Amino acid sequence: MAKTLYNYWFMQFDFPDANGKPYKTSGGKMVYNSILKKNIPLGWDVDHLSSWIKSDKTGDWGKEFKEGNYTLQVSCIRGADISGLRENGKNSPLNRYILNKNKHKILSTFDFIIEISGGSPNQSTGRIAFITKEVLECFENPIICSNFCKAISLKNKEYFYNYQLLWDNIYKNGVFFG
Question: Where are the domains of the chain?
């Protein structure tokens, strides 16, 4: 349903206008955009996905056992866990211990985890999963991403699902291999 809605609103530009009618097919004003080489709704802009990002959280691997200042117990999400977060809910994250000063790396609702290393000739890096309240409740410890991943937080949480759909579109169309 989300993909269909995305297609109508952001590819065909038939989002509801001020009267609740499909914008483009109801005569909404369109202007040519030289970057996209197509008409887009008047007042819309073309920008990079990176402009939506407020901050990033680098991954951490920590230690296997409590040792010295490594005392904060966390569950560490790896690239191998991304499909479990996205599809079947089955994960086997490792319990690790990180430095207390790195607690800013703990993931929150509306964060995204992006695999940045570990791709193969058949699978690009760039797989993404998002964190919801329900995801956080699946783990007994706070979660972080491993050092083979990076987490990002958006400036505006209202863009959360749109960001996910845009990223998935880029990934599925092989842009990351390019």
Answer: 2-46, 50-157
Residue with tokens 């402009």: 51
Instruction: Provide the sign of the torsion angle of the four alpha carbons 152, 12, 171, 2, taken in this order.
Output: positive
The first and second tokens of residue 83, run together, are: 């499909």
Nearest to 142 by CA among 78, 85, 95, 177: 95
State the CATH class of domain 50-157.
alpha beta
List the chain pLDDT tens, one digit each, 178 residues: 877 888 888 889 999 999 999 999 999 999 999 998 999 999 999 988 899 999 999 999 999 999 999 999 999 998 888 888 877 666 778 999 999 999 999 999 999 999 988 766 777 688 899 999 988 998 889 999 999 999 999 999 999 998 998 898 888 888 876 5
- Nearest CA-CA partner of 85 in 116, 113, 123: 113
